[in-house]
Design a protein that fits this description.
The protein has 158 residues and is mainly α. It folds into two domains: 76 residues, no CATH class; 79 residues, no CATH class. The chain starts with a helix and ends in a 6-residue tail after the last helix.
């Protein structure tokens, strides 16, 4: 039974008798994939326009975003994790600087204060040895002094 779920295509997963209709059902499917070591396949689902985070099923659910960060780390896809964290933080910065009207998309962008994004960016940067982004991005939110302080204690290499 579980093997048949793992080999279903996204089209089959969206067909009426088996359709995944909620983000909770999507999270369950991703948990099954993750349990069976199908990390890259789970990432493909999260990136897909039909079932992914930005789909009508995913509805920009923040737990799916955090799940994607965990999957990227498990897969060792550090550059992708760095790119994704940076994109989310830049999106949050640009949306927070403009007027908001309370949409779900803005709700996800407002999560830029979630420390898991910052630690994901910093950890992947350290692994990739790419800390050039720190001063420009962090100066937008007043973290430059904090990060420079950490660097002076040897916690970060700036």
């Amino acid at each position: 039974m579980l093997n048949s779920v793992l080999i279903m295509t996204q089209k089959e997963l969206l067909s009426p008798p088996r359709a995944i209709q909620t983000s909770e059902e999507l999270q369950l499917l991703l948990a099954v994939y993750r349990h069976h070591g199908k990390i890259k396949e789970a990432l493909e689902i999260l990136n897909s326009p039909n079932l992914g985070i930005s789909s009508s099923v995913g509805k920009s659910d923040w737990s799916l975003v955090l799940g994607k960060l965990n999957l990227l780390e498990e897969a060792g896809l550090w550059q992708e994790k760095w790119d994704y964290c940076k994109m989310l933080l830049e999106s949050a910065l640009s949306r927070n600087s403009g007027a908001t009207n309370g949409t779900k998309e803005e709700s996800v962008a407002s999560q830029g204060d979630d420390w898991r994004l910052w630690t994901g960016l910093i950890n992947s940067s350290q692994i990739l040895d790419n800390l050039a982004w720190v001063p420009p991005l962090c100066s937008h939110v007043g973290l430059t002094c904090l990060l420079q302080k950490q660097a002076s204690y040897g916690e970060l290499d700036l």
